[in-house]
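Run log, item B.
One chain of 144 residues. Sequence copied directly from the ordering sheet:
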Amino acid sequence: MKKFALVIASLMMVIAVQAKKDEVKIPYDSIPAAAQNFIKTNFEGIAVKKSFQRIEDELPVYTVTLINKTAIEFDMTGGWNTISVDKKKGEMPRFVVPNKVQESIDGRFGDKKVIVLVTDGFYYTVKFADGTETTINANGVVKD
């Protein structure tokens, strides 16, 4: 029984070490140029705190954290997948989503603070500071 417990403990340690290795800190200038441009355009004047790369489904994924606690995840081409801002102090940039999506957010949820945006390129999941969320397609249609 002791040997079995030792084997399980060893396997758990190997898995934990491997998981930590999956995300590697990288220099900011190593992320795709499109991602750097996105940050420069939409988060002007906010410094980068750290940047990481991990492999997901055999493709690189980049995560950049800014000094104001904003975290942005990018795909291998530099397109953003997720943006999250600090719930209390953070400010989600306007028009990081297509115009029709932003118009839907403004029209239906204008009084709510957006803290997380997630996209697959077709749908945009919008999470608000009050804990609610909605999904909007690229044409601005809100999924009820």
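Observations after the first pass:
- The mean pLDDT is 89.
- The first helix runs from residue 2 to 22.
Flagged for discussion on Thursday.
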